[in-house]
Amino acid sequence: MDNNNRDTLQQASEPSAFDPKLLELLVCPLTKRPLEYDPERQELLSRAARLAYPIRNGIPVLLPDEARAFDDSDDARLRR
Fold first, then answer.
1. Domain residues for 58?
2. What pLDDT, in 10s, does the model give residues 13-30?
3. What CATH number is given to the structural domain containing 29?
4. How far apart, in whole angstroms, are the C-alpha atoms of residue 19 and residue 59?
5. What confidence tens digit (pLDDT) does each residue in 27-76 have?
């Protein structure tokens, strides 16, 4: 296998990175308010709904059933 094929295979196996520019277009599906990106946890946060939506393979999953409840420790951690 040559180096070009090896590089292509490695890139294909790595998860896609979330593009923060998408935040300009995305809103919380429940509140229609802006979302915040948490790169550490790979989540989009809706402070208004107190929900954290997961990002999987670079794709935001904006389904309330897939979101986790946003708690005070998340809020404190992000304000630092």
1. 3-79
2. 445 688 888 899 999 999
3. 2.20.25.10
4. 9
5. 999 999 999 999 999 999 999 999 999 999 999 999 999 999 987 776 66
Contacts of 65 (CB under 8 A, 6+ apart): none
> Which two structure tokens, joined as six digits, stand for 27?
């809103």
Longest CA span, the chain: 51
Phi, psi of 69 (to 5 degrees): -65, 135
Dist CA 7 CA 54 (whole Å): 28
Judged on CB neighbours under 10 Å (0-12, 13-18, 19+), 31 is: middle
Q: In whole angstroms, what is the distance from residue 74 CA to residue 25 CA? A: 23
